[in-house]
Each structure stands twice: as C-alpha cells, then as structure tokens.
Amino acid sequence: MKEKIESIRRAIGEGMLQVHDRKQLFELKMQFLGKTGEISALSKGMRDIPPEQRPEAGKLVGEIRTWAEEQFAAREEQLKTEELSARYASERVDVTMPARFAGTGSVHPVSLVRQELIDIFAGMGFDIYEGPEIEQDYYNFQALNIPADHPARDMQDTFFIGGEYLLRSQTSSGQIRVMENKKPPIKVLSPGRVYRSDSDATHSPMFHQMEGLVVDRGITLNDLKGCLDEFARRMFDEGTKTRLRPSYFPFTEPSVEVDLSCCNCGGKGCRVCKGTGWIEVLGAGVVNRRVLENCGIDPDEYTGFAFGMGLERIAMIKYGITDIRLLFEGDVRFLRQFKG
Ligand code: PHE
C-alpha cells in the first residue's frame, strides 16, 4: 500500500511538470481524483484489506487525497495567474506611444481677415448687421440712388433671379436695411457674401465684402479718413498711410477710392503696388442725401459716411496672394499655410 501511494505521489509530481494549461491540469486531476481515478481506486480497494490494517491504510489514503487536492488547487491558482498576466501582456496599451496625428484644420484666410476686421471696427464701437444674400432690386439698387436705367448698374454684373429678386452685388444693400429700422446715431459693420458675373485671376463670381456705415450729426469726410487711418494701421502696420482719390458711387457724394501705402515696399514702389507705392483697397464716401431721404432720415440734420471693401482683396494684399482662385479651390496645401 505504502509503495502504491508513493508511486502515485511521484506520478502526480511528474505529471504536474507536463501540465501547461488548465485543461491539461483537469485531465491529470481526473486521472487520480476522478471517479475512476487511481486514488479513488485505492479507496475502493479498502475492502480487500484485512480489517486490522484498515485504519492505518485509510489514514494513508486520506493523506494522499488531501495532498493531491492541495497540489491541484495550488497549480490551478498558479495557472490562472499566469493566464491572466499573459492576457494583460497581449492586450497592453502603450500610453507613452506617440499618438497618431489627427489633422486639425486651419482657419480660412478670408475668415481670418473677416474676424480681424470685426475686431478692429468693433473696437471703434461698430455693431454687426448681416443682411440677406437674395435681395430685392430696391435695396441693392433703387434705394441706393441707382434707378432702373442708371449706367452705374453696369459696374456690377448682377445675377438676376426673377421678378425683383437678385443675388446682392454689394453689401451696401445692408445700409438701407439698417437705416430703415434704426434712427441715428448709427454705426454698423455689415460683412457678407456678394455675387457678380465676373471671373478671372482677381475676380470671383462670389466674394465677400464688408460694409461700414456711420450716420450722426456732423459726420464729415474727415471722420471717414480718421476711421480708415485707424483701420489701415491696425490691419497692416503702424506706418500705413491712406490716400483718398475722387471717385463716383451713386450712393455717396463726394465719393472716394481709398489707397493704402504699399505694405510690401512701404511706398517706394514694387511689384505688388505696380511701382506706384499705393494699393487700392476700398470705395467710400459721404452718404448721398438722397439715400438718407429714402430711409426717412433728414439730411439737413444728419450726415454720414460709408465704405465697402472686398475681403478677398484685403487677404490677397495682406498675405501676398496673387490669384483669387486659390481662395476658393480648397487646396489644403495652400490653406495649411494660414494659422488659426
Ligand atoms: N458698394 C461699393 C462697391 O461694391 C463700395 C462702396 C461702399 C462705395 C460704400 C461707397 C460706399 O463697389
């Protein structure tokens, strides 16, 4: 009996060395502790043992059973821990690994310019008004002192939609909408898209304008000049000068074309300013009394100034862009060059 037990003990010890997972362990366990296993066979063989030796033999069998159960339980624990750490190792996430770069976008140059202009003029006390892009002839032309057969309509190749509707060709339509609803003092900035049937390196059928309108008692062309000087210095650099040249718009009188000293050469003359030292940036003037009258504002009591500039043009000057189409093609290699 003793020998038999010793050989089982050895067999279990050796078998244990071959066991590498819980399935193999279970099979080994069954071989000894299962119903038909070797240790169970020992218990069954008890009846063949002479009664006087039975207590002794029973004790030995009990001991080997307890020992075997402990061995299997311990190995089982060990395998469980090993399997778990193997799983942890295989599913491990390396938090120190450099992250895959999820490309962030950049702000479009026209949006950059738009925001910068809003900041500058809001700082001078301007409110923002955004009017409709589908506009009535009345607001885009007639109320701005451009009647149906006026030759000034030719300057703005307009997309007519039908009836009295059109795609606004200038943000000046916002002037009328503001003055119809608000009495002076008025100080508004009106940014937005405008449309003209025109397309080449410096013209796009859709582009952006920013309109400015100030109406109050005693407003003169000097106030316009002061306001634009401030804009030029903040948008470009401290040394930027403005120059007003006589021009014509039906809704302003007098009207001016505004030039800025070239930000590329400082006014000496270069390729950007075509050797003149000046760059034309916007149209402006003193609000025509007819326009004030059209909006129910007494032109003998109030005067005003207005200006309108193209945002693409400002962006092109500021960033040295030579073809307006780059601003609309959506080429990321181009767009990526702008901060934001
Ligand atoms: N609306 C004019 C244009 O588009 C610009 C302008 C605005 C001129 C306000 C004078 C006053 O050309």
Automatic annotation (TrEMBL):
Transmembrane segments: none
Chain ranges of the Aminoacyl-transfer RNA synthetases class-II family profile domain: 113-337
Database matches in InterPro entries: aa-tRNA-synth_II, aa-tRNA-synth_II/BPL/LPL, Phe-tRNA-synth_IIc_asu, Phe-tRNA_ligase_II_N, Phe_tRNA_ligase_alpha1_bac, Phenylalanyl-tRNA_Synthase, tRNA-bd_arm
Cofactor note text: Binds 2 magnesium ions per tetramer.
Any matching Pfam family: tRNA-synt_2d
Cofactor: Mg(2+)
Protein name as it appears in the record: Phenylalanine--tRNA ligase alpha subunit
Organism from which the protein derives: Candidatus Borkfalkia faecavium
